[in-house]
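new request in #modeling-help
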Amino acid sequence: METALRPTKLAEITPHRAAQRSSRVRAFGLAEGLQILSRRLNALTPLSPQDEAFLRGLGGPLEIQPAARELSPPQEPRFLVAGWACRFRLLSDGRRQIIGFLLPGDALGLSETARPLESCRVTTLTHCRALSAGPVPNAIREKQHTQLARALRLANALDESFLLDHIVRLGRQTANERLCHLLLELRWRLAQAGLTQGWHFPLPLTQEMLADATGLSIVHVNRTLQQMRREKLIELRHGMVHLLQPDLLAEIADFHAPDPGQWAA
Amino acid sequence: METALRPTKLAEITPHRAAQRSSRVRAFGLAEGLQILSRRLNALTPLSPQDEAFLRGLGGPLEIQPAARELSPPQEPRFLVAGWACRFRLLSDGRRQIIGFLLPGDALGLSETARPLESCRVTTLTHCRALSAGPVPNAIREKQHTQLARALRLANALDESFLLDHIVRLGRQTANERLCHLLLELRWRLAQAGLTQGWHFPLPLTQEMLADATGLSIVHVNRTLQQMRREKLIELRHGMVHLLQPDLLAEIADFHAPDPGQWAA
DNA sequence: CGGTTTGTTGAAAACACTCAAGTACCGTGG
DNA sequence: CCACGGTACTTGAGTGTTTTCAACAAACCG
């Protein structure tokens, strides 16, 4: 790591084949996006019918972004409703560290205070669809939609919580543990948005993206994943993962599902 | 790291000798604590005379904590005015990761929203003195002390920014780079509170604490520091550091001083 | 002064990275 | 249809970093 460096060309950040494939499989409409968003926010705190109506009113056409498109700050507020993105930082020599992933249902640019996290560079990892959330800050400021506001606060708290998990993962866990932990985090978050089938869920990430998230080299990610497959911990095919022994994985990774209620305000 | 583990006994977390020594050298009074706090907050945004008076009014006797005392959440709001503390997490087998350091002038438990960061476990690393900040949330809620409120928002933003730096450090930097980067961060923060003399500043941390912060083993921290000494990058004696070649250090670590003005709200 | 913690060193092993080459897969264009 | 180019994935070999274990020295504490 000290000597030769992998100069991460940004153009290199391209979508997983399977992700591209699946994104073309079926039309994805506004209705479906709203459903995912609603499901995710309701998992944080039950929304009122007014909140739901407000979200539907956001309407507007879905913003569509190709994979590997950098969304330049300052971010327009939006809800990601399909596809994956990430926040990242680059070192001056090109090493990249992924700060966190953005999954369907996640908000971008909606943190009340202009926080450092929001000024991270963001790039889509797959083909993405987003819903403009421009009216949201005003609606919240005017004390309407208190439940929606609460859900968004909890979403921010969750983001921060994942940041802390990430620090422990990078600082004190082995390659194996890091990957187990990350997979469990992703599965938990996708489950909140109703995008899992049991322990089976989409993972449209290349091994390079996994490496940049876990602080490992691509090759080592590859070998570690294969070891996990050999040990029947996971199955990994066609951009989908199956966690075969979730309890064992959680023990290996020392994973504890977050409890949004805990940050109740 | 996989096999044998260092079962971090919490009782083990003891203060650096030099820190203990210096804490006994001279009496440390309320006035001095207020001065450090004021200097630090003014570095974030200029406080009004009313703000300053309010801070002085916090008064109350200084809370005094010995080293290695865990401050149990929920945190009573307070300002740390002398000594060092840290937020940390433990893995179930005892591995410890330090999430961030708390330095004189830093606030604890003052983040408006109950954030995950505030629910981290916190322990003093050295003998500490703190000022109760109980009245602060109310004062802010009543829209008085807008400048003080702004300073505290900026302080929170800075904390978050250090979290992101920490992630990059742990994920993508070598041992050498991590230590350089951490030293530069600490010196910048201490300088804000007026606790440095040029590039010379106190570092009351054991190598174990540095290891738990940088995600390295104690032994490797030791060797890396010695290498840095041999290369005349730093001097390190009696709990004080001297950064001999700050520009070179910044280049090695890819360090960029934060700009609080950037998160202006 | 003896006990404790912290810092230091050496040797061996474990872990992770680089380099390099090759394979599989997909989309494209001839 | 197939050859081609591109990307991602896989594998082996060698290297370098980091950890572990163990022992000892130094500094501090009461």
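bot summary: The interface with chain B takes residues 1-2, 89, 91-93, 95-97, 99, 113-117, 119-120, 153, 156-157, 160-161, 163-164, 166-168, 170-174, 176, 214-215, 254, 262-265 of chain A (CB under 8 Å).
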